[in-house]
Specification:
This protein is α/β, with parallel strands linked by helices and about 325 residues long. The protein is built from 11 helices and 11 strands. About 50% of the residues are buried.
Amino acid sequence: MADATQLRHEKYQLVLAMAQRQPSVRTAVVHPCDALSLSAAVEAHRLGLIVAILVAPEPRLRALAAKSGIDLTGLAIVASEHSHDSAAKAVAQVRAGNAEALMKGSLHTDELMGAVVARDSGLRTERRISHSFIMDVPGHAAPLIVTDAAINIVPTLAEKADIVRNAIDVAHAIGLDLPLVAILSATEEVTAAIPSTIEAAALCKMADRGQIVGGILDGPLALDNAIDPGAAAIKHLASPVAGHANVLVVPNLEAGNMLAKSLSFLAGAESAGIVMGARVPIILTSRADSLVTRLASCAVAVLVAAWRRRLTAG
């Protein structure tokens, strides 16, 4: 199994080190019924990031552990019947106060999120639930937060406002005290021909009026003039955000998905995934994600949980 020294991306090593200085987070791991999801949960437990509560059919879990050489000694197991039952029982662990985070295993995202958003038995809050990728891009000085590329398909203006608020919370949790938030579109000009530019302008005005706080917003911005100072200078964009954004808010899920995957597959980026807006942070990874990504996602969840504790205490 990997240890902290094998996380090759410098920014992720920093996030992992920050997380390991925080108390471990009791985490319900939902249906870790393949070797990668189980090994990642156990490794995160061994690294002290989480206290894993494995929610899965117990005979299947123990058979997988034996076959894969994974030691389950000392780990709590909550037995379930199948993947839907795993999701429901993991959410019940949170509602009972036994867990302060969820971690997706080998079940489908829809199964987990269905249990999370269930009206009477789920983990809803007044916020819209949204996903953030925290991306470690080689050659880029700071982590980039890309949102939302996994949950909200075509978000409304009100939903985008919550997506921005959730991303700002993630930024605060990982140590960005005043995140620079770029509301992306295909152009930096506001035009009725591209509705996302109008929504970007509205979000910025909401920030001006105190409806969105904790970060500096600018938009619409095209991707180049959001992250490249030279491109911003060519367009004569004078703002703290233009050319220096560390949060990228995409117009819709398709754009976000393509942006995140382009960074991963063309630029060699690693991406941690976290869902905010529920009662607890949700570690939401793809079944194809690497151990590095899963551990980094756990580290981000630990930092979010620690940040929430500070808010509650202070």
